[in-house]
Fold this sequence. Notes:
GO terms for molecular function: ABC-type transporter activity; ATP binding; ATP hydrolysis activity; ATPase-coupled lipid transmembrane transporter activity. Keywords: ATP-binding, Cell inner membrane, Cell membrane, Membrane, Nucleotide-binding, Transmembrane, Transmembrane helix, Transport. The chain has helices at 4-7, 35-39, 43-74, 82-131, 136-139, 142-184, 186-192, 194-206, 210-233, 235-240, 244-279, 282-298, 308-319, 323-345, 404-410, 434-440, 455-459, 468-477, 481-485, 503-517, 533-547, 582-588, 591-603; strands spanning 365-372, 381-388, 393-398, 419-424, 427-428, 441-444, 521-525, 551-555, 567-572, 575-580. It is of the alpha/beta class. The protein folds into 2 domains: 22-345, ABC transporter transmembrane region fold (Up-down Bundle); 365-603, P-loop containing nucleotide triphosphate hydrolases (Rossmann fold, 3-Layer(aba) Sandwich).
Amino acid sequence: MTGAALADTREDTPDHPGSPTPAAGPEAAGKPPGLGDLLAPVRGRLLGAVVAQAAAAVCSMVPFIAVAELARALLAPGGPDEGRAWAAAWTAVAALVARLVLYTVAGTLTHYADADLQLGLRRRIARHLGRLPLGWFTENSSGEVKKAAGDDISTLHHLVAHTALEVTAAVVAPLTALGYLLTVDWRLALVALLPLLLGFWFFKQAMSGGEEVTGRFFASMGRVDAAVVEFVHGITVVKAYGRTARAHRAYDDAADDFAVFFRDWIMSTTRASSAAGFALSGPAALLVATAAGTLFVTQGWADAVDIVPFVLLGPALTGSVMGLAQSGHAVQGGMESARRLHALLATPPLPEAPAPRPLGQAGLVELSGVRFGYDDTTEVLAGIDLTLRPGTVTALVGASGSGKSTLARLVPRFWDVTDGSVRIGGTDVRELDPAELYRQVSFVFQDPHLLRTTVRDNIRLARPDADDTAVEAAARSAQIHERILRLPRGYDSVIGDDAVLSGGESQRLAVARALLADAPVLVLDEATSFADPESEAAVQQALSALTAGRTLLVIAHRLATVQGADHIVVLDEGRAAEQGTHDELLRLGGRYARMWALQKGEAR
């Protein structure tokens, strides 16, 4: 698979090669990232929705107020006031209609805003992922990426589409009711506030440390997600070696840790949450309003008819506030998701040259004084000097962990070197346009990744405009055409649905993809590692067709496969310990000779 598909999604930036790309937005200005930054594109619609919801919340209280005024009009000391009674009735009807219209407008605005926000974020993340160094994807689990790009964006749905409206209603409705009650009797209004104040105090106790707990909650869920993805990806090997129980352990441990954390969290908040729920319940508010009203009437502090508004509207002061508990969790979850999305979007993309330079000699690869480390403390490669000439095969061999894969992946610029340079056609890869780089370099690795789409689209991933004739020609050269024709729908079969390929077949499909890319430089990382004995010969034939006339850099664990290479480099702890042809290295009698003797002995 080549990186052309990723390169196509890049955006132009003014960054200089070798310098980190400045993060856009608040991070660059030193301001901590927040949810408001993510919501900026839809802020206008959300503000309009909040205004409509606030008006709807006022209208939702008007019928209760109207009923209270109707009772006061009918029970007035001087006799029923018919005009006032009819005015109250029609006001209630008008308020109900207005509430319905305003509520619909508010909900429509937030749901459209949510849909646009999710679409925009997913497109933004897709573009950003396409600009990250390819090596970043080997360092971050697919579970973490999936959680940020999928789950975290979905988490924002309730926050954007519902929470803003719920919070608005929970604040405006009680304030409207309170404002009316204060006009009736300010003393009873203050008494009616007691359940609300008590409920808020208990809620504050229940939500104590909520931000830290929410962070731990999502971190624990992330570990569960990562364990599931890891288990599913390795299920074939796990079952083959009968280690299912051990493989389950990582998932079981992550699930158990989450269960313990969640139980402790719930137990620590249950008492305060229950007390808050009781204080804010309708019966509790009604009890307070009735008891206080009775006291005021018996003491002659108020007329009996004035108690009706408090009996009707007292529960309204607390009822809508109950929804704030769920909204509070949604806000905390949204903030945590926003932080993870910001962290992903703030990951520095691969720096691009402001003025890409042209290539010189196609297929010429030069590594000069290359040093590389994944962090500032450990150096993986040190002082590598290597020239790969067009039409030659260069093999990297050495013990596991010697730096073979890292060195090979510097050529297609999975990472940038710490020091030195990697040049293709005489031009530093950091000064090449990414699209041009991936036209020059293609690669086939040990575990070829196939997309869940048709076989045809998998092959022409590097050249989306390739016609069917070119796709089939590449498949024939890769020795996979006949196998594709035996699939239920041939080239239109979907990988993972009606196209199930073996490891060797998947590698030949990856070879066909690289053949179609027709890049002058090819990197192979033990491309026959997953091939079964029967298909290994077919893979080797496919590779022969692929490497003809190209500059080839191959990583080999079996020395017999690179015996005829033009140049062999023996890596040891990140350094080029030996270089030469097969015969020259055998005569040298060093590491390569010992590795050769050991493998020949194992073969016998």
